[in-house]
Write a structure and sequence with these properties.
Elements lengths: L4 E5 L2 E5 L8 E7 L2 E8 L1 E5 L5 E4 L3 E2 L13 H10 L11 H5 L5 H24 L12 H9 L21 H19 L23 H8 L15
Antiparallel strand pairs: 1-2, 3-4, 4-7, 5-6
Helix pairs in contact: 3-5, 4-5
Amino acid sequence: NESGATLAIQGQRFELSPGEYSPWVRVAFSTGPSPNIYGICRFHLIRTEPECELYVSPLHLDPERPALPISHPPIYSVYLAKLNGLYGTLGLAEDTWALNEGVLDEDAFLKQAWLFYEEREKMFLSAIERTPRGLTTCVFDTPDRIQHMFFRCLDETHPANRGKEFEKYRGVIEDLYGRMDQLVGKVMDKVDDQTVVLVMSDHGFTQFKRGVNLNSWFLREGYLKLLPGKSASGDW
């Protein structure tokens, strides 16, 4: 109905509200005589009318029962899940292609990105509390993912804005940096004056407006040839 839907999957039931994500849902895949392979995913109810539209995230390995080691030592992924709850395990967890292809809108993508961020922050802060000596390090990829998808909104002439909303999201990147600054503050509150805190970035950012098709250049410069009778290449 308009107020939501009930998801029933593998003996589990979840109440879904339009525009919101489910908690992590465990799913199992039978492999015959071998043990099951376990994964986790989130469901996002896009709408119920006029037809029901439901998004399911890419599958992640269940960190409590991974089909292959995803941490070192292998038990560490299990430890983190027991301590802080289930969490995303894909290398690129934020589903940028779902936004590119119009499966998710900008609001849904941002909610997803911040859900992953909250998991990472929870793990990082708890690790700091449990590490009296040595090095604690954590990678936050949220700034990368959000800037890739929203840098266009800082320039109204950007070609990626054609037919898309951008005014509403002009402040997304500024808000992002404000939230990351808050994280630095939370870290500083948990350490003493003998602790060195390093904040590092692996690259900068700018807008992407144009690209080069290498095959076109190779053809023009004589490094590629078309088949006899052809005046243009195929799609690839």
